[in-house]
Specification:
Blueprint: H1 3-14, H2 20-30, H3 33-46, H4 58-71, E1 74-77, H5 85-88, E2 96-101, E3 110-115, H6 121-136, E4 140-143, H7 149-157, E5 162-165, H8 179-188, E6 190-193, H9 206-215, E7 219-223, H10 230-240, E8 244-248, H11 255-265, E9 269-270, H12 274-282, H13 301-314, E10 320-321, H14 322-329, H15 333-345, E11 349-351, E12 356-359
Parallel strand pairs: 3-4, 3-7, 4-5, 5-6, 7-8, 8-9
Antiparallel strand pairs: 1-2, 2-6, 10-12, 11-12
Helix pairs in contact: 1-3, 1-4, 3-15, 6-7, 6-12, 9-10, 13-15
């Protein structure tokens, strides 16, 4: 990707109202980020927005790229050969990720290991042992560099290859005691984030980080996770991404084991060692196809205008599947998707799981 297009992609991704799904829809319709940026204000107005949409300025995007260059981070764009293949297959994939380290590590098969921050000594030792075993089987280990299980997993795998996915910038180290581990991972593996350099993470960013952890991996191993924990969110993402879920059983008397035990009841692979993971993944096909765009020629503005009111009338606070919306409207998918894009940019649409949308 040329530098000018990379800058435009970053501007589009950082503009108000543009998430991964919206970005994908905009590129599918307008083919370039520059054309999509030009179209954003009109799309938001058509969706009912009354205040100007805040677009990311070229100078702001350029400063972000300069900050990344100063720390040695690279911005990888979806579709580039170095972009992780498994992550590109997530629906929708993140359009851009920062990488501190060598992107060549993405060419290797990866397994995620996640679990409790307040992990027991036994849980940490098991996570470290499984990570080391996976390394000997040729897998890269992915985790989130948090306290507890994450730290143990990275420590067990760092000699053979590990990837740390952060909710903040790739240079924002938390917890601070992992500074040396962060430096070694950056030097020998890779540190990954969607966020700009220097960005301090917010609580709302951790589910996005968890989605990347599972998205980079062929499978996710859960070691000690309480009911409702972030590790179970990562496992749910793995299932949504059609990846395998593994869980280490624990005592029913320990709240930290209840989440993993519940995953096993739901069909996760009972896991006691790296051999259990390797046996399953070694028998599974490696290929994942990347999601395609909406396809077809862009609809005419007159056709969109004629259908807009009817589509809005079909929407309400109760989530509805997009395919059902298309069938009930009797309108082409391209027109419906364009109107949903307008509503989302106007801040009037909520996208839920399972391709469901609702009017705010």
């Amino acid at each position: 990707m040329r530098d000018v297009e990379r800058l435009a992609w970053l501007r589009l991704a950082r503009s108000e109202g543009v998430g991964a799904r919206t970005f994908q829809s905009l590129i599918a319709r307008y083919t370039t980020a520059g054309k999509a940026l030009d179209a954003l204000p009109a799309l938001a107005r058509n969706g009912g927005r009354r205040t100007p949409l805040k677009l990311c300025l070229a100078d702001d995007a350029a400063r972000e790229l300069d900050a990344a260059a100063k720390i040695g981070a690279r911005l990888l764009a979806l579709g580039e050969p170095v972009f992780p293949t498994l992550l590109a297959a997530v629906d929708p994939p993140p359009p851009l990720i920062y990488v501190l380290g060598d992107p060549a590590i993405f060419q290797r098969d990866a397994v995620a290991i996640v679990g409790a921050r307040n992990a027991s000594a036994g849980g940490r030792k098991l996570a470290e042992d499984i990570a080391g075993g996976l390394g000997r089987h040729g897998f890269v280990v992915v985790s989130g560099l948090a306290r507890g299980i994450d730290t143990a997993a990275h420590g067990g795998a760092v000699a053979d290859g590990t990837i740390a996915v952060l909710a903040g910038g790739v240079d924002v180290i938390y917890p601070p005691e992992n500074a040396k581990l962060h430096a070694r991972i950056a030097a020998e593996g890779a540190v990954v984030s969607e966020m700009p350099p220097g960005f301090a993470p917010l609580a709302s960013h951790f589910p996005r980080r968890n989605r990347i952890i599972s998205g980079l991996s062929r499978g996710t191993v859960v070691v000690e996770a309480a009911i409702g924990s972030g590790s179970l969110i990562t496992a749910r993402h793995a299932l949504e991404q059609n990846r395998e879920v593994f869980a280490v059983p624990g005592s029913p008397l320990d709240p930290r084991s209840r989440g993993a035990n519940d995953l096993i009841r739901q069909g996760a692979v009972l896991t006691e060692s790296a051999d259990d993971v390797a046996a399953v993944l070694g028998a599974m096909p490696r290929g994942f196809s990347e999601p395609g765009g909406e396809g077809g020629a862009p609809p005419a503005e007159a056709d969109i205008d004629a259908a807009r009111a009817a589509i809005v009338d079909l929407l309400g606070p109760t989530p509805v599947e997009i395919d059902d919306l298309i069938r009930r409207s009797g309108t082409s998918s391209n027109i419906v998707l364009t109107i949903l894009l307008e509503l989302e940019l106007a801040g009037r649409l909520h996208r839920g799981s399972g391709q469901k949308v609702a009017l705010l």
